[in-house]
Amino acid sequence: MESIKPRTLEDIHFCVDMYLKLNDESFIPADKQLAYDNLSNLVRRNKFVRMAVKDDKIIGWIYATPGLNLHTKEKILQQSYFCSNQTGISAARVIKFLHQELIEVGTIIEAYGIRGALKVRPFATDPVALLAAKEIWIKSAPGSLVLSVKDYQVYLSKFHSGSVILELVGLTDRDQALAMKSARIAMARKHFPTPGEDEFYWTDLLGAQVENQAGEPFGQVVEMMDNGAQSVLSVVNDVKKQRLIPFVKAFIIDVNLSDPMAKRIIVDWQSDW
After folding, report:
1. How many domains is the chain built from?
2. Are β-strands 184-188 and 102-112 bridged in parallel, bridged antiparallel, or unpaired?
3. pLDDT digit string (tens) for 192-212?
4. pTM score > 0.85 for this model?
5. Residue 234 is part of which domain span?
6. Largest CA distance in the chain
7. Same-domain check for residues 71 and 31
8. How far is CA 1 from CA 51, 53, 203, in A?
9. Same domain membership, residue 221 and residue 187
10. N or C: less crowded end of the chain, CB within 10 Å?
């Protein structure tokens, strides 16, 4: 499955028709031609419209718009329309997939200097993409009561003592920078190189089902963490039991992400550990 923008009028017509088939006309009357024209206009204006495509077939789409966070007055990306011709858990997986357009690349660990610069701990040992970024998104820290995503233009970036220093347009106050501590830095997937063999983006590991070599299920990856020495899988099962498994070769036997809707990780880990 991949996330792409509508490419042709046929794509746009398919998306609209998918939505209208599920729409309750008695509740929301629909003008098909107006819907075609409006979605075409959104795509031409480069708004956030994405399709989920699997085996060359469109199985869902989303349109999101900038909104205002009522708690902070920051701009956030809010879902306006979502539609899928899948049902049940498959439909839920499609919408989750479409929301993973942005890849997390680092964590804000501190303000840097007095002019609003950010000190970021990159998730990659060689953060080439982050250092070359012209635009980044800041996502609220894991566990935050208010979820927000805000985009910034990058004025300056540099590598300094293992961290990346970012100066962002519009962020000029140290107190603003301090308030972003523990938030995540994300970038659009399209700006990333293809990962090499045995390399993975953290966001792609989220949601993967984890089991050991004996086939014992441990749950799914709900979070990726960095303890300073290595990446760690946070795996939680149906009864909320958590396992923290180092994401290193000594414990990771196999990672299969070929189907985003059925991701699986095999680990060398005992059930009583």
Report:
1. 3
2. antiparallel
3. 777 778 888 777 888 899 999
4. no
5. 202-267
6. 62
7. yes
8. 10, 5, 15
9. no
10. C
